[in-house]
């Protein structure tokens, strides 16, 4: 099985999204800090924490350094390393590090699309299933406020969410379907009613939603984002320790243009884009010939243009709809189908990158 590590594409703007002051002293200090931070290497991903988008909102005010560190549960030790490195700066009196993490969660990944209906939730659900079958502990957070259909795709349509009191306040308990822990904005709303949240209320609800779920120990938390590049997406992206995003598109030109916008949003915030999944790439006719119903080459062309890998091409497969409607993802219902194997390959590449202990021994040979 293919299990190459995913290449990383550092964002040139990772550290600059907090405005750099015009004061030349502060500017030089900001540069010194950024340079030092680039010396901190994350051992599993074998890249520096700046290129990995783990450091954001860097500010230098007089003799003080402020930054946000986005980490998984196994990366908390990086804080100490950063503190000790930055304390070597002669002018630095103190470094304030705000940790952004989800307790117990190792790797948080987002599934995003520029427009609705391209198969983002289908990809999220099938990838979660493929990772889970491969031995990972997986959670799926359906944050798509415009169309939260993950519960239905996993057979959880009527489920009730329980809340428990913990030492850290009230927490929602995720539901479990096919071994995957699931939480959805749809489960918190009245059935068949739109989620009509806007502005600060939307921000507050999404922030609580991200931080108040009791996931337990997870290797992966996949977040199914709302489509597009609006307020909701930006809130989720800024509030969660997302360490990579998978973009879903169809081969059509309009979908591809939307993905381009989507990708620029992530690069601006400093989150690495892991690659593109082209969904509904082709239909197999009865002779096994691939027919490009929605055009061809869109995903490949986009991947080349944006210097990001094409992670997989998922065919149009009626079994995907059947599986989604029946609440059992195709990757579980028919694990040897061509479609399922595409998701398994993407899952294998994710494991090779983020969770090497889950890569089967045969792949190391
Ligand atoms: N490869 C495919 N073959 C056949 N049907 C598919 C495929 N991918 C997705 N679909 C179907 O297309 C519909 C939309 O898929 P999905 O809900 O995953 O898209 P989405 O991008 O998440 O949409 P939204 O933005 O509305 O949440 C679903 O009915 C799904 O079953």
Structural notes for this entry:
- The protein starts with 23 loop residues before the first helix and ends with a helix.
- 35% of the residues lie in helices and 24% in strands.
- Mean pLDDT is 87; it is low at 8-14.
- The chain is globular, with a radius of gyration of 21 Å.
- With 365 residues, the protein is α/β, with parallel strands linked by helices.
- Helix 3 packs across helix 12 and helix 6 (199-211) runs parallel beside helix 7 (231-239).
- It has 13 helices and 17 strands.
- Bound molecules: adenosine-5'-triphosphate.
Supply database-style keywords:
binds adenosine-5'-triphosphate; single chain; 24% strand; Rossmann fold; 365 residues; eight-stranded mixed β-sheet; 13 helices; GMP Synthetase, Chain A, domain 3; three-stranded mixed β-sheet
Low-confidence stretches: 8-14
Classification by helices and strands? alpha/beta
Binned, the helix content reads 25-40%
Ligands bound to this protein structure: adenosine-5'-triphosphate
CATH architecture descriptor name of the largest domain: 3-Layer(aba) Sandwich
Give the total of domains: 2
Q: Largest sheet, described in full?
A: 8 strands, mixed
Report how far apart the termini are. Answer: 11 Å
What's the CATH topology name of the largest domain?
Rossmann fold
What is the CA-based Rg, rounded?
21 Å
What does the average pLDDT come to?
Answer: 87
Total E-strand runs: 17
Give the name of the CATH superfamily of the largest domain: P-loop containing nucleotide triphosphate hydrolases
CATH class of the largest domain: Alpha Beta
Order of helices and strands: HEEEEHEEHEHEEEEHHEHEHEEEHEHHHH
Binding site for ATP: 114-121
Region (Disordered): 1-20
Subunit structure: Homodimer.
Keywords: ATP-binding, Hydrolase, Iron, Iron-sulfur, Metal-binding, Nucleotide-binding
């Amino acid at each position: 099985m293919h299990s190459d590590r995913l290449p990383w594409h550092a964002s040139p703007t990772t550290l600059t999204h907090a405005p750099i002051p015009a004061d030349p002293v502060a500017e030089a200090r900001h540069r010194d800090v950024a340079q030092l931070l680039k010396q901190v290497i994350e051992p599993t991903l074998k890249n520096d924490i700046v290129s990995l988008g783990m450091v954001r909102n860097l500010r230098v005010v007089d003799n003080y350094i402020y930054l946000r560190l986005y980490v998984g549960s196994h990366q908390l030790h990086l804080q100490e390393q950063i503190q000790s490195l930055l304390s070597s700066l002669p002018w630095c009196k103190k470094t304030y590090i705000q940790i952004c993490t989800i307790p117990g969660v190792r790797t948080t990944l987002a599934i995003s699309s520029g427009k609705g209906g391209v198969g983002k939730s289908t990809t999220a659900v099938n990838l979660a299933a493929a990772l889970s079958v491969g031995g990972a502990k997986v959670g799926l957070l359906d944050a798509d406020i415009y169309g939260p259909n993950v519960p239905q795709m996993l057979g959880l349509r009527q489920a009730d969410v329980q809340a428990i009191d913990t030492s850290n306040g009230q927490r929602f308990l995720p539901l479990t379907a096919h071994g995957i822990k699931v939480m959805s904005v749809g489960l918190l709303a009245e059935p068949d009613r739109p989620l009509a949240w806007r502005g600060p209320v939307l921000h507050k609800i999404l922030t609580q939603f991200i931080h108040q779920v009791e996931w337990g120990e997870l290797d992966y938390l996949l977040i199914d984002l709302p489509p597009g590049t609006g307020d909701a997406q930006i809130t989720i992206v800024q509030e969660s320790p997302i360490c990579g995003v998978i973009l879903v598109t169809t081969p059509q030109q309009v979908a591809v243009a939307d993905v381009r916008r989507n990708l620029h949003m992530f690069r601006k915030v400093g989150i690495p884009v892991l690659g593109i999944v082209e969904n509904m790439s082709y239909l197999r006719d009865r002779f096994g010939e691939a027919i490009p119903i929605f055009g061809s080459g869109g995903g490949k062309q986009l991947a080349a243009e944006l210097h990001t890998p094409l992670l997989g091409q998922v065919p149009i497969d009626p079994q995907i709809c059947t599986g989604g409607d029946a609440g059992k993802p195709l990757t579980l219902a028919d694990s040897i189908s061509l479609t399922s194997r595409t998701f398994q390959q993407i899952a294998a590449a994710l494991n090779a990158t983020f969770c090497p202990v889950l890569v089967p021994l045969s792949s190391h040979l």
